[in-house]
Design a protein that fits this description.
alpha+beta, 4-stranded mixed sheet, 2 helices
Length: about 100
């Protein structure tokens, strides 16, 4: 195994878990998480921050009832109930020094 530092300073993982229709547990995909991820990724790229900040998809982050869910690093913050209105604040927090 090789270990090395990642080539970016910050990352956010957005759950895009898709459960089968009729599943008793809700999923972030049905609550628009993929669209949120794409919008945030576009914001990062448009502002030229794609070398510093990475936006990743994730499987279940364990708070399905409160989705869409994201985890931000290196802050180690859990973001619950993310909406399109939250994206600018999330972006601003990711790119600040």
């Amino acid at each position: 195994m090789k270990k090395f530092g990642v080539p970016f300073n910050k990352a956010i993982f957005l759950c895009t878990q898709k459960r089968p229709d009729g599943h008793p547990v809700p999923c972030c995909a049905n609550r628009g998480s993929m669209e949120l991820r794409m919008k945030l990724k576009d914001m990062v790229k448009t502002e030229g921050k794609d070398g510093e900040v990475k936006v990743f998809t994730s499987g279940c982050l364990g708070a399905c009832e409160h989705g869409p869910v994201a985890v931000r690093y290196p802050d180690g913050e859990y973001l619950l109930g993310v909406t399109p209105d939250d994206l600018q604040e999330i972006f601003d927090d990711l790119v600040k020094d």
